[in-house]
Hints:
The protein is of the alpha+beta class and about 575 residues long. It has 16 helices and 23 strands. It has helices at about 45-55, 60-70, 80-90, 110-115, 125-130, 140-150, 165-170, 195-205, 230-235, 270-280, 340-360, 365-370, 375-385, 390-405, 410-415, 415-420; strands spanning about 40, 45, 175, 180, 210, 220-225, 250-255, 290-295, 310-315, 315-320, 335-340, 435-440, 445, 460-465, 475-480, 485-490, 495-500, 515-520, 520-525, 530-535, 550, 555, 560-565. The longest helix has 18 residues, at about 340-360.
Amino acid sequence: MMLNxxxxxxxxxxxxxxxxxxxxxKALGVAALPDSAPICSCHNVSKGDICQAVNNGAxxxxxxxxxxxxxxxxxxxxxxxxxxxxxxxxxxxxEVKKDVCEHFPWSRQEIYxxxxxxxxxxxxxxxxxxxxxxxxxxxKPLVASVLASCWNEYLLKPAHLPLQDTNDRYFANIQKxxxxxxxxxxxxxxxxxxxLIAIGQIAKRYQLYSKVTGGQRIDLFGARLEQLPAIWRxxxxxxxxxxxxxxxxxxxxxxCVGSTWCRYGVQDSTGLAVRLEHRYKGLRAPHKIKMAVSGxxxxxxxxxxxDIGVIATDKGWNLYVCGNGGMKPRHADLFASxxxxxxxxxxxxxxxxxxxxxxxxxxxxxxWMDNLEGGVAYLRQVVLEDSLGIGEELEQEMARIVDxxxxxxxxxxxxxxxxxxxxxxxxxxxxDEAVQRxxxxxxxxxxxxxxxxxxxxxxxxxxAVCDLDAIPAQAGIGARLGERQIALFRxxxxxxxxxxxxxxxxxxxxxxxxxxxxGGEPVVISPLYKQxxxxxxxxxxxxxxxxxxxxxxKVENGKVWVGNQQLLARAEAS
Length: 574
């Protein structure tokens, strides 16, 4: 507000303190921002720049990104860029549609109800009945999340695998060099000495960088794709399960030690946090969910900065909702006081399922509640008073999710076909030579090197790379053409080959991108920087320079062959 010369509201404290009963919403909205307000700090894009782009004809996020480069850096401003764009469109009298993308003329809430009411279990069923085209990096993960929230099926089933972004496809968080981080669950931060020793031994054995996270668990960085199953087999043998750090789901339930150890504690906060984490683990939602439980009002677990916060009292538990930290911190609102444990859990069940039903795509609980007409008072009526008469239904939906939980890594380790997907190259056991390490402060760290020389191409005009069935349908996999890294994609009845190096990051990860189409044009969306690249020639959808090289492909008798002469011409749409 100071940087933009904005006047303080009549009650300045309302900007940072919880809302008072009956008070007006405290969000100022993008309308109050001056044109000079910075929206995208990565590329120095102001509100005025975005408004001018809209005035010049940019009417969707793709056009805004192309014109201004806003939201093409870290991506953290995407939601705000979209709000500014929609505000300016409304100012021009243009109807602002809530369609999720060009493939579905529906909002996220409408898609959720279509899936739930019509018992739709796959993306293909949904898009054939209510959409068009092949999907994209917006609608595919969205539908994957909705399907998981409704039916909680294994994410790597053949029907679901093509919908998963790289983190959900490989059950790990991708890093800037194409390696992954591994986060085993430590419910409420509890871990046994043997568990700590096992994690330390695994980190040493696989040369992983280890760091304690803010969520009271340990993150192991630097695992290569093909190492993930071996690492997780050892973690599972040591009693660990997936921590879902990669998903839009429950992350952690942070806690203090509570009355068990602390002289100030009035309730067993750790015990409740363990129960909550095991109840809601694996729950897929529009965005990540963080929780915390404090054993007294000293608030050592910082529960009032979480989506769901619980603070012990002499009479029970106080429930706080819809807080968050991050770029735009929000203090949680006191939702209910002195609840017994059963009532507390029932209230959380209802609130989370109502959030999953009604939130927009990638909308945190804080923004969701701020946008609810009636705010926290309305939410109390729905959850505590059952004003809509759906309380029991919400509880039953949550019960089905809880009862159908599975550790995704344990399921994967028991399925040889799924394990075959965890490899950098379908035709080589050689590791990615670009993933290198150096020692810093006694631990392995990424070694940033100059671009490595490309491997030699095969001498023969065509190389048999793999069986067609080795490439997942509507997805990609890495391969080697001679010594050179390429990405193979199976899109419908065709197979395409591109360089595996993602242009924006220079990491060899393009094979792990999502497939879709833009205006009917088959594309791959790069996993790190979300660049849309045409499969037929390697050109970006909105650029004038080739992004990656394309290679000729033929399929004979179920075998995929790739030629050693790159496709030089910019292909015209067929």
